[in-house]
Hints:
Order of helices and strands: HHEHHEEHH
Number of helices: 6
Largest sheet: 3 strands, antiparallel
Strand content: 5-15%
Distance between the termini: 43 Å
Amino acid sequence: MTKELPACPVETTLMLISDRWKVLIIRDLLEGTKRFGELKKLVGNISQKVLTANLRSMEETGLLTRKVYPEVPPRVEYTLTETGYSLKPILDAMGEWGTKYKEKSI
């Protein structure tokens, strides 16, 4: 990544995962390698264009890898890198917080 990172570590983290879709993509890739179509179904109401843009951005920042198989039609798989997997505790904490918030709101 050639972009200069913010001085604040929280801002750096937000820069990498602040998009709603990126967090959901990471959530689904934590379960293992997925193909584009699988991710589109799992993530939900996301357009192909937006999913592609987010996956490219995440690949550029080193959160995931993209593997293209020379087949017809082409098969593309996405896998979290070690850096991507290191976000698991953050997503776990977000899930825990969200559950507690929902319980208080009911």
